[in-house]
Queue: 2 jobs
Job 1
Amino acid sequence: MQTPIVRIEHLSHKYSSSWAIRDINIEISQSGIVGLLGSNGAGKSTTMNILCGALNQTEGNVFIGGIDMRKEPEAAKKLIGFLPQNPPLYMDLSVDEYLVYCANLRKMKKAEIRPALEDAKERCGIAHFSDRLIRNLSGGYRQRVGIAQAIVHRPRLVVLDEPTNGLDPNQIIEVRALIKEIAADRAVIFSSHILSEVQVLCKEIKMIEGGRIVFADTMDAFNNYVEPHSVLMSMDNPPVDTQLLQIPGATKVDFLTERQIRLYFNGDPSITETIIEASVRNGWRLREISLDKSSLDEIFAQLSNHTSKN
Amino acid sequence: MKTTLKIARTELALLFYSPIAWFLLVAFLFQSGLAYTTAIEGYLTQQQMGGIGLRYLQFITNNMFTPPYGIWPSLAGKLYLYLPLLTMGLMSREISSGTIKLLYSSPIKVREIIFGKFIAMMVYNLALILIHATIVV
């Protein structure tokens, strides 16, 4: 097996007295997009800053491509491109000057800089802004310059901290497409507090809450996890709950009002058919039935609460 | 070393993209002129008054331009005012704008960053001294 591009072992970080993250273990393979999901203040940015060497961890180890970040920081950092939450831009430089500076900081060879620069600008759609001052760019384009900065030295790992924050819906779509393109030949770690975004982009998902990983698996597993488990019905002549519980698969009944009922079931969506049949047979006069699509945000809240109780 | 120089170059560029560096140069130019005039004024008065004072009126060049006399010590005194204005922001500006993360996540050592900034400041101060020297010439 190839060495994973990122291995984080028992990572903890303490800001003065409170732990921001606690015992985080992550392993990320060579390519593809990994989403880091968490609410504000969950520890996403802390994790990413440590991963990129912008912050020194209190405990634990970070390995980039098998290289220990603490022992050989320079070798490890060469493999990383980092876009922090606020793009680290020098407002008084022009786009070209800035990107050349970044390329130099990453110790690129002089001959390589030009083509790499053009390529990065092309990919991020900022080629026509080469001579503009960054100060005069709009937020969306600043973000793109930030992304260009992170990929200009063609790193094997790109870390993007909330890259779509503060962009308008069109720009978000463009940036997403860009991230997908970047991820074609390298690993991308990408953080967000918007579930749908992670769902669209990522093949793997790590959820952080309260400084701990609460969910780490593939996107498919996550989607399975969030399948509906309840159905909302309104009936003009509702039966008592024991009758409803006799329906195969039903686990629990809640009467929201006299006529509105929420029925929990074991996850097999064909239960709706059974309910309709039963209703017709027994004259419950079913008026409305819908599967509760537990929105991702609800799941998010559930998972978050689940861990905070532990 | 190469990276250090690149950092120094960018730092200088940033410095001169902002009006503050130019403003300080102009202010310093003015102040050097003032220092020179003050220093030479004493000799002029003495010369015009004539009499016994003329006997002491010698080695003027020496007294004007070589430390510990004349205008160089006054220059040293005035640089105190200018240097902190420039140097105090060197690191804190990076931290407040978040660009420090760019430096930290790049494969460079902290000492390269600091040295780069130091060199940039050296060059700027050399410019200040050159201005002073022009006044002298």
Job 2
Amino acid sequence: MQLTGAVLVLLAGLPAAACACDVQISTPGLLGLSGDGRTLSSANGLPAIAVISDLNLLAPTTITISGIRLDQAPGGFAAPLTYAGSYVANATLLGTSSGTIAPSASFQVPAILNLVVTLTIHNSVTSTSGFPQGPYTMKTSVTCT
Amino acid sequence: MRWRGPIIAGGLAIGLALPTSPAAAVDVTFTGLVVDTCSVALATPGVMSLSGDGKVLATDQGGLAVPATVTVVSIGTNTLSLAPPTLDTYPAGYTPGGETLELSTSGLLSNPLFTTLGIDGIIGLLPLTNLLVNLRITNPDGFEQGLYGAHTVLTCS
């Protein structure tokens, strides 16, 4: 009886848990210029941190990091650019995983109750002609399906 | 990608045919501010020597004469400016006013023709690079014996 009760409670909670996949940015990244002026990178600033929770309980969740891009740059800046990125994923029950992003990276997280994945992301953009003065914004998309 | 660490298999893994999770997508933002920086340093001062006719003191006449060497490092876009040169020191017997001071540059900024005006140039991303500055003082009345000194002000901003 006790076991049956537990299963019923669990199944009752499944629809809500199965239909959510939440990605929150806890810390946006900060870019810094390298000493030679050619690379703008979070390695010279701060990485972005994303927290992924409410994962699918019925099947593994695929987390994809993609689309590294320069979203804002000073006017007239159109130099050829090279993008790069890396990530480190931490989950309490699973340990650590890491990889490079460019052009994209994806990995699966098993269906585990209350699993939270913390994603630390680095982005960088390199321009052989350097970066004119002004504000720059880079973006990367994190998707969980 | 593989997880590295203790994988605990005691979690919930259920294969029931219930609705799957919808996709969630979020853009992660990185911001940065690039501020132009430029640094200059005088590597070696210039040395002037007197021409054969005694009317020109200049750094480009060979012998002991050498141009001044300035090292420049630039990040972003900067303007390098050399002000018109001025005569600073001269012997007691010399009366200033009849001379003409001129500049020319080579290396980082190529302005081989001497000019009494200043010299400006826009520079971009630049590792440590040499700028050679030549200075010439011309006086049709010649120069008294003694030590002469002149300078130009170089700014990078």
